[in-house]
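Friendly challenge for the regulars: who can give me the C-alpha cells for this chain first? No prize, just bragging rights.
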Amino acid sequence: MVSFGHGRIASGWLVKVTSLVLMTWLFGWALPIRIPAQSSLGAVRFDLKGKRSRLKARQDLLIRTVIRGNPDEDQLEVYNRDGSRKLSLNLLKSLPEARSLAIWDFSIGQSGLLAVGAVARSEKDELSSHLLIYDLSGQLLSAARLPAGKEVRKLEVDEDDSIWVMGAGSGGKDPKEVAMITRFGREGQVLEEFLPRSQFSLHAKSTEEAPEVGGRISFGLTKELVWMWLPPGQLVTLRKDGSDVQIADTGLPRWPGPLDPPAHSRISVEGCFLLPSGRLLANVWFYSGEETSMVLSDWDPGTGEWHTIPRLAYDASDSSLFLVGVEQGEMAMSRAVKGDRNHSEVCWYAAPVQ
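First reply, four minutes later:
Bragging rights claimed.
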C-alpha cells in the first residue's frame, strides 16, 4: 500500500459557412496581439533532416529530441538561444541492452541537470521504462529502471535538482495504490509520492490525452507549486510538500464566433502553462471538417472563463504552431518554416499575459 501522506489526497455547407465565420472571427473581429511579425527576442532554425522532432524551451535553453531516428545518431540536443549547440547525446549508449528508444518527456533544471523519461526495447523485444539523468557535459549520472506504475508521462526538473514526474499509468496495479505524481532524486531514487490515480477517474488506469477527450495533458512547476492540467478540463495544483491540493474545473474554451459548433467539430487544448498570476496560457486547436485553426487562449481563475488572445491563427496545413515554453515573461513557439518541410524554427516573444 502506497502512503501518500497527510493532506495529499483531495477528494457540406454548414461546415463551409461555419469555417468562414470562424476565420472571420479570428482575423477580422480581433485586435492585433502584442506580438510583432518578426520576433525581436530571437529565433533558432533547425534542419530536421527528414525527422520529426519534439522541442522544449527551459532555462533559456532549447532541448530537441528526435521522435524516430537512426540508433547510430544522437537522439537529444541542447541549444543556446543563439542557435549554437551546447550538447548532443546518443541516449541508447546509456542503455547497452536496448536496440531502440521511445522518449516520453525531457527537461532541464537551473543547474543543468538533464532528465529524460524513456521506454527502451531490447533485442528480445522486451520493454522497460527508464529515468535517465545527465549533467550538461553529457555525463550519465543515473539510468534508473522504473517499476510498473512509475513510468514517465511528463517530467520537470526543480531548482533543487529533484525531478517531478507525472506517471503514465497504474502499471496494472490498483489505482488507489499508485501515485499520480512522484518526486525523484538526482540518482533516480523515489523521494515522495502524491495523489492516488484513483482520484482522477478518466486517468486512473492510464493517462488519457487526445483531441477526442479535450486535449493533451500538461505538467509543470512554479516556485511553490506542482501543477497539472488534465483533459477534459481540470487544473490540479498542490504545494511541494503535498499540502493545499486544489482542483479547478477549467472546462474547455468556447467555440469561436457567434454560431454553435458544427457537427463533428472538436476543441483541443494542445498544451498549456501555469503563469505566476494563476492564469493558464494555452495552445488551443479548433477542428471543423477539413478546417483546422489555432489560437492562444488564457484561462482566468478569477472568473473561471477562457479568453482568446487576439489574432494568432494559422492554417495547420501551412504552419503548425506550438507553445513550447513560458518563462520570465517570455514565451517560445515552434513552427514549420513556411514552404519548407525540412526546417523548423523556434521564436521567442513577450508573453501576452502574465
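DSSP finds one helix and 24 strands in the chain. Confidence is low (pLDDT under 50) at residues 1-40, 312-319. Your move, everyone else.
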